[in-house]
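Researcher: Sit down with what I've pasted below and flag anything odd:
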Amino acid sequence: MRQCLPQGPDPPFPTPIPLDPNPSSPEQRPAPRQLHPLPKGLVELYGLLAVLFVLVPEWMAGGALVGFKEARDGSQLPVTASAWRRVPELRLAAMGLAELRRLAKALGVPGYASLRRDRLTIRLLQRLQWLQSLPAWLRRS
C-alpha cells in the first residue's frame, strides 16, 4: 500500500495521490478491440427491412386515414359523436375544470368549488343519475 506522507512542515494544500485505474504499464495493456465492419450487402438488407417493417405500414395507415376522411360526412367521428350524446362520462372527461364547476353550480352540487377534478366528476355523475331518476315533471329544464 502506497502512502504519501509529508516530509517536514505541512504543505498549504494536500498533495494529491496519483491513482492509476489500470496499474499495469502502457506496454502491458491490451490494444483496443477492433470492430469489424459489416458487409455492404448486409447493411443494405437491414435498410430494406427497415423500410418494409416501418415505413410501408406507416404509408398504408396514412392512406387509410385519408380514405376515411373522404367517406365521412357530418361529424368527424360519427361513432363517437353518438356516444358523446349517450355517455355523460365522455362529456365530463372532455370538459375543463372551470366548465365542470360551472355545470356543478348549475346542477346545484354542494361544495363544488373545493372539489378536485376526479371527485367533482364523480359528484356530477351522481347528480346526473339522480336527475334522470326523477319524474319528467320534476326535472329542471
Q: What stands out?
A: The two ends are 90 Å apart (CA to CA).
